[in-house]
């Protein structure tokens, strides 16, 4: 018996997860790209705009309005790179860290409902497999 392609299984799940995240993100005043920026900066505090765009898979020119909004809201800071003043370094602020953590906790509470459908061993194996596959980009 053949199995479905990985994309045929993962893409619908990914879309369902993104649909489930939308109201949570709205409740926390974030768009998906803004949330992605905050998580990436929380992971590595200081990044260039180009490195951030590459990390989250965004077009760096389309990311600028997202960064402007986050900066205006005091969630990130942008400073010139002392080594190259044409380059902007990004850093998450304490308020940005708090909002990212609060939003992620709400999203993960929702995800727990889906994961509860799996028995504990399958759940751990599933999460371990996802981590492995996600790390192999």
Automatic annotation (TrEMBL):
InterPro entries linked to this entry: HTH_MarR-typ, MarR/SlyA-like, WH-like_DNA-bd_sf, WH_DNA-bd_sf
Boundaries of every HTH marR-type domain copy: 3-135
Protein name: MarR family transcriptional regulator
SUPFAM superfamilies: Winged helix' DNA-binding domain
Molecular-function annotations in GO: DNA-binding transcription factor activity
Biological processes annotated in GO: response to stress
Species this protein is from: Amycolatopsis acidiphila
């Amino acid at each position: 018996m053949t199995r479905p392609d990985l994309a045929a299984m993962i893409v619908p799940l990914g879309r369902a997860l993104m649909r489930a995240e939308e109201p949570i993100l709205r409740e926390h005043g974030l768009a998906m790209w803004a949330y992605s920026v905050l998580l990436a900066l929380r992971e590595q505090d200081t990044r260039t705009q180009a490195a951030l765009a590459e990390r989250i898979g965004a077009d760096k020119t389309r990311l600028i309005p997202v960064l402007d909004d986050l900066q205006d809201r005091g969630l990130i800071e942008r400073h010139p790179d002392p080594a190259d003043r044409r380059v902007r370094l990004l850093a998450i602020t304490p308020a940005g860290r708090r909002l990212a953590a609060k939003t992620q906790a709400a999203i993960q509470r929702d995800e727990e409902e889906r994961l509860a459908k799996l028995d504990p061993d399958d759940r751990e194996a599933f999460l371990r497999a996802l981590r492995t596959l996600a790390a192999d980009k």
